[in-house]
Amino acid sequence: MNGIIGHIILNVKDFVESELFYDSLLQVLGFEIDHSDTGEWGKMKSYKQGEHNLWIRYDSKKDSKEFVRDVGLDHLAFEVKNENEVDEIFEIVKKLDVQITREPKKYPEYTETYYAFFFRDPNDIPLEVYMQ
C-alpha cells in the first residue's frame, strides 16, 4: 500500500479575496485550476498539481472564526527547487498585501541549505515557501 495526501481543503472567510490570493500564489507554483463549484451552500475551488489538490472553500452558512494555532494545522509549506525561486515567490507574495512573518533567509538549524520565508494568507493561515 502506498497512501498519498490526495487533497487539503482550506476554509476561507472571504472567497473572492482568497481566490485572488491563491490564484496568484498557486499558479506560479505550478498548480492548475482544476475545478470550481458554487451553490446555495457556498463556493469551492480546486488547484491541482500532479496527484495533489489544494481546495479553498467558503461556507455561506457558517460564521468565520479567527485562525488559532493550536491542535491542528500549524502551517502549510511549499517546496521549490532553489533560492531564486523562493525569492521570486517572495516578491509575488509581497504584492498580495498579506502579512510576511519572516523574510527569506537561511535556516541552518533545519538543514545546511534550508532557505525559506513565512507569511499568512488572507485568512491568517500560516504558509511557507522553502528549498532545502
Verbal overview:
The structure is a single chain. This protein is an alpha/beta fold. Helices cover 20% and strands 39% of the residues. The mean pLDDT is 93. The two termini are 28 Å apart. The chain has 2 helices and 8 strands.
Give a short synopsis of this structure:
The chain has 132 residues and is α/β, with parallel strands linked by helices. It contains 2 helices and 8 strands, in the order βαββββαβββ. It folds into 2 domains: 1-61, 2,3-Dihydroxybiphenyl 1,2-Dioxygenase, domain 1, CATH 3.10.180; 73-132, 2,3-Dihydroxybiphenyl 1,2-Dioxygenase, domain 1 (Roll), CATH 3.10.180.10.
CATH class designation of the largest domain: Alpha Beta
The average pLDDT value, as a whole number, equals 93
State the share of residues found in helices, binned by percent.
Answer: 10-25%
CATH homologous superfamily title of the largest domain: 2,3-Dihydroxybiphenyl 1,2-Dioxygenase, domain 1
Number of helical segments with 4 or more residues: 2
Distance between the termini: 28 Å
The chain-level structural class is: alpha/beta
CATH topology category name of the largest domain: 2,3-Dihydroxybiphenyl 1,2-Dioxygenase, domain 1
Global Rg: 15 Å
Name the CATH architecture of the largest domain.
Roll
Overall geometry: globular
Strand residues, percent: 35-45%
Q: Could you outline the blueprint of secondary structure elements for this entry?
A:
Layout: E1 7-11, H1 15-28, E2 32-39, E3 42-49, E4 52-59, E5 76-79, H2 83-94, E6 100-106, E7 115-120, E8 126-131
Parallel strand pairs: 1-4, 5-8
Antiparallel strand pairs: 2-3, 3-4, 6-7, 7-8
